[in-house]
Structures are given as C-alpha cells and as structure tokens.
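Morning - MD5 inputs below, output right after.
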Amino acid sequence: GRVTGPDGFVLLPGYFDRAAQESLLAGVLGGIGAAPLYRPSMPRNGQPLSVQMSNFGPLGWVADQAGYRYEPEHPVTGAPWPSMPPALLELWAAVSGWHQPPQACLITVYGPDSRLGLHVDADEDARDAPVVSVSLGDRARFRLGGPLRNSPSRSLVLSSGDVVVLGGASRRFFHGVDRIYPGTSTLLPAPFHPGRINLTLRRVR
Ligand code: MD5
Ligand code: FE
C-alpha cells in the first residue's frame, strides 16, 4: 500500500515485514553498542529531551547547550559514528528518488512516555532532499502540520515496519510525535519495550 498525503508526504505502511524489522533492529542494536545512546538537551534552556539518540553514517545530528548541528563524531565518546547498515542504504535508494546516498541516520529511542513537540527539521543545508523515516516497535501518534506553526494539522498512527518519505514541501512542515501507544508491538527487547525506535535518513549538505 501507499498513502499519499499533502505536498510530497508518502506513507508506505508495513514496508518492512517482521523478519526485515528484526534484521534492521539487530543492526541498530549493534550500532548503539558502538555509539551509545545519549540524551540530547535543548540549546536554549538545557532541558533534556524525553528521547535518547545516536546516529549512523558520516554525519550525526547532535543537540546540546551550544545548539543543534551535524557532527562527524559522537558527542560523548568522540568516535566516528558507525557506518550505515546496508539495508538502510537500500531503502533510501528504493524510495527517496535522490541520486546521492544519505549522509546521516538519526536513531531516536522513545520510552512509553516520550514525546516530540511540534518542530521543523531545518538543520540540513540540503533543503531539497527528502527525509526517509522508519518506525520500529510500539505505535506512535504522529502529527503532521503545514508550513506554519499554526497551520492545520492531522494525526496518523505509525506502526512498526512503516516507512514515511517526506519530500517536496512536506520536508519543511511542522511535525511531532504526540504519544506512544505502549505495548502495541512485540518487536523491541528490554530495555526498549515498551517504546519505539525511529530511524531518519537524511542528506545534510
Ligand atoms: C519520528 N522524527 O517519527 C519522526 C520521524 C525527528 C522526527 O521528527 O526529527 O527525528 S521524521 C518525520 C519528518 C521529517 C521531516 C518532515 C516531516 C516529518 N513532516 O513534514 O511531517 O520519530
Ligand atoms: Fe523531525
């Protein structure tokens, strides 16, 4: 199936079957063994986010008191980010419509009470490249707005194995994660269950 939303937003429900999700998860768990999850904080007030993060690929998104930016190294260990799992490079080639490979894969780990407030992804200089997002684990209520913070928004449920391609104007739309529905998937092991892992593939520059 394929659900086409406004302005370049495409949802591919169940893109990855259970076996493919398990294989992706093994890659993610291996990656965060080498590049441990850390809890970013917001630049303005130093407030910790309710999610934990890490990255794959030549560049990784980091947040701390100094700001939001892309860095080639892990902010805590100083080591380069692990390379991107081949399955994610294949996904990008299959769905992004972009000829260059992704430079960053942000790994975001949600607990049962984590949320992500309404925001725009604007730390990338590559303004025209799409973002490709993969959901693993418990379902989430995703909110898709428009170009302005007060644009009308709709919510949709993202389930384990779903892929979203944010192309065109939707790449710069306000969006967020309102809530996790704990215990709606059996994919993730402890300590990630109940919870959700989201992977976002991006061009940065
Ligand atoms: C998530 N993560 O489900 C989402 C998926 C993030 C984030 O928002 O920044 O890590 S990425 C969804 C996204 C990216 C760019 C544009 C839009 C959505 N959009 O206009 O809806 O954990
Ligand atoms: Fe975002």
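Note: The domain at 3-37+47-158 is CATH 2.60.120.590 (Jelly Rolls).

O.
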